[in-house]
Amino acid sequence: MDLECEITKESSESVAGLSIKEDLLITGATLKAHSLSHAGVLVWSHGDETVDHMFVSRDERSLAASSSNIIKLLDISAGRETRRLVDHNCGVTSISSFSRSPYQWLSGDDEGVCRVSDVRRHPSTLIALRQSRPVRCAYSSPDDSLIVIGDDSCLQLYDMRQRKLLSRFIHSTMGVAFHPGERLMASFGDESIIRYWDLDTLECVSQSEPFNERIINAHFSFQGESLIVCSSDGVRSLSWEPCSLEWNFPHHTPSSLMYSHLDKDDKIRLIISDPLTNTIKVLSSTLIQMESSINDRKDDDEIEDVSRSLELLSSPLSPVSSPLPCTNNTDVMLLNNEDEEERSLRVVSQSPIFQSTVTKSSSSNTNKLPKTTCRMTNDDEKRRKMDERKGSMKKAKDGKTSVDIMSMIDMEHSSVMDDLNASYSSLRGAKDAFRRGNLPQVLETWIRDRNAAILCALCRQCTYRNRWNLSLSLSILPHLPIILTSIHRELRGSALFALSSIVNAVGDVVSSMTRNGVPNSIGVDIAAEDRLRMCNSIEKELVLIQLRENDMIKVMSDDEKAQLSAIIALFPS
């Protein structure tokens, strides 16, 4: 890694931060900002209080620094204090900013109180969330809809919109990282284990092996392919589906990692405290450079291993100190005038595998090899018979060899894998489109691919998020009979669940509008006319499902039959 900046460390400095836009390295004990590009020249300093924690806002315009129970907000470019938050009653243990609003901050303290503050308000506290233990970290999701609070024993997720606790997990949490595109979060704590959480299902989907050193920070790469984990002994790259180690870039000097930063160009910067030189260093490198350096190091190790092997092969062999064992009672006499070919042949003839009768050549024709008669052992005879048996079984009844059959199996396997990969890609694309709210694109994908998994996934998401309306119900209902007659129980269960949700969500509206109509609105209120048309179409689709009930129950279990009958009984009449 390249050295960008190096400054002399004060005795009590333990926290640091970076502002890439302003080209500043910010350190505490007392707040000081040093230029990254001008050899660590001091740009500004502020106050003489000891800084316990600091956080640079997402837009890198503001800096929050805490001393005891007071949080100072500063303008990074000038080092000027803009606001002071004094709502906490004890020491502040965590600070972070919201992603979308530069005015809202999250902070936690030793009493277990996490506060959402807006610097435009007086007093600034919007929400106060109380925990049973001191808060170790508090972060907001990229869309600011979730708040994640971690302490020594648990991880808690709060919904900011509904102002309620979503879930709680018994795992120590000291920091989290959010995926840039997926509804995925990575967390780490005192156990030094990375855990991945699906924010839709609120489940742990995978986890890593324990690390040797304490994890300081973790970042997803800009495209989200991997998670970069930073600790005092090195930088590692982990995949998240499934979780596995991709590469490890160790530190070769004893140091303490204070802070890490990963920008949109996948360039990572580490702020390291070096006890040998009593300095603070900023090291930087791109992820591609780190990975290529690791690969080059592996190649050098392989070349060194090969060269060592060649040296061993090229070195002269030492003479045998003891004679070879004999298989008969005849002593082996090593003659000084015996040539190399005769000596090697005689040693082979006395081995336990081959029994030979050696006829010595005449002394006048020393270049001619002696004639040998070899006899196979029982193991060789068994191996030969097995090979003959395999050769006789190569021909199949249809005249195809085993090689042809294996080739056909490989082709079928490749075809099945291609279909599965295509289905997986379609499902991932539909899932991303649904998360972005682009329901017409999801429906277009389903109609084009006729993928039952996409339809079932869409139905589950609509049910969980209460997204059923007239237009979406009308788009899904014509395709449900196909899934209800499927041989797969999981797909039938999803379709029954979707049908029940549709009836509960829009059944009353359909019944009311088809029975009463829209008086004095047809031809004037276009929206009301469209709603009436959709209600009539939904009623027709429900009637078609009711008429096909006998065909559907042929593949259903008794529980599914009873469930379908109960749902049909709720159809609007």
From TrEMBL:
Gene3D superfamilies: YVTN repeat-like/Quinoprotein amine dehydrogenase (2.130.10.10). InterPro entries: Katanin_C-terminal, WD40/YVTN_repeat-like_dom_sf, WD40_repeat_dom_sf, WD40_rpt. It is found in: Cytoplasm, Cytoskeleton. Residues 377-399 have a biased composition (Basic and acidic residues). Pfam families: Katanin_con80 (PF13925). One of its GO terms (molecular function) is microtubule binding. This is Katanin_con80 domain-containing protein. The lineage of its organism: Eukaryota, Metazoa, Ecdysozoa, Nematoda, Chromadorea.
